[in-house]
Amino acid sequence: MERHSTIATKFLVISDTHNLDFDGTPSGSQPLQPPIPKVDVLLHCGDLTEVGGVSCYEKALRMLGSIDAELKLVIPGNHDLDLDQEYWGTHEDDLEDHVLAVDAMTGRLADEARVSYLTEGTHSFTLRSGARFTIYVSPYTPAFCDWAFAYERNEDRYNGPHQVANAVTSIATKPIPDGVDIVMTHGPPKGFLDWCPGGYVGCDNLLNALRRVRPVMHCFGHIHEGNGIEVIEWKKHPAGKSPPSELDAVHKYFEEDPIENPYPEPFVWKHGHGERTLAVNAAIMTQEYKPENAPWLISLDLPCYS
């Protein structure tokens, strides 16, 4: 294929819908409700449910099926307990419910909804428009309160053995590769849209990987209080020299004056690949588990091939 410039591509980014009622009944306090603008790509960053369960996944799939998008990419989150085989195997007597949960997210109803349930790793897609992108996804977050898809804070899922920080062990079987366009994780990086009453709870190791990869966009949820967007500008350092700390590598906008969500209009992101990353926390639920946060509709210029 031959590349021809770029093409504007609309992404609807949502997360933490937690059994959201989506029956078309108008609700003034629920921004995510029909009609939803037609988009090219739908991204769901996890926590489809409260604690898993086939009927809840089916409910989520019906919601996703009602959204008009050519491509619908979904990952689980820490609340989607039975989708995590390792977690389920250590908490239940058998794996039958895990098998049923995965079957629900990859079976007939998922096909009818045109939903692609993604496992951890890197995936590539080409749209009918010719737009092409690569996306790295991971449902894992730092461990707390015995939820699913967890790792310890001194474990790094995103960087190889020669890329980790001091006193950190790489457990990555599929580290984030250089050159990836979009990163979608369930949780945030440290210091970006990650504040909650417990403090800034994002992942240092994820931030380290983002600094290395510098994607066009990183989308996530998990921390309901953090809904919003920030622009990360990656500072330049002399070749071969690392900054004194990870946060010295970045500068963020909108910290003092957060940008208003223009939904249902798109936020148009004009990026310089490798220079800036758009961080998007798309949690629909508030801290009180009320669906009062609007989704983020992001327009990205993607390379176009024909």
Core attributes:
306 residues; alpha/beta; 7-stranded mixed sheet; 6-stranded mixed sheet; 15% helix; 29% strand
Please, could you describe this protein's structure?
This protein has 306 residues and is of the alpha/beta class. Helices cover 15% and strands 29% of the residues. The protein is built from 5 helices and 19 strands. It has helices spanning 54-65, 85-91, 96-106, 108-113, 204-213; strands spanning 3-14, 39-44, 69-74, 115-117, 121-126, 132-138, 141-142, 150-151, 155-156, 169-170, 182-185, 195-196, 199-200, 217-220, 228-234, 250-252, 267-269, 276-281, 296-305. A 7-stranded mixed sheet has the order 5-6-11-14-18-15-16, with no helix packed on it. A 6-stranded mixed sheet has the order 4-3-2-1-19-17. The chain has a two-stranded parallel sheet with strand order 7-8. Strand 5 and strand 6 form a beta hairpin. Helix 1 (54-65) runs parallel beside helix 3. The radius of gyration is 19 Å and the shape is globular. The protein starts with a strand and ends with a strand. Residues 244-248 have low confidence and may be disordered.
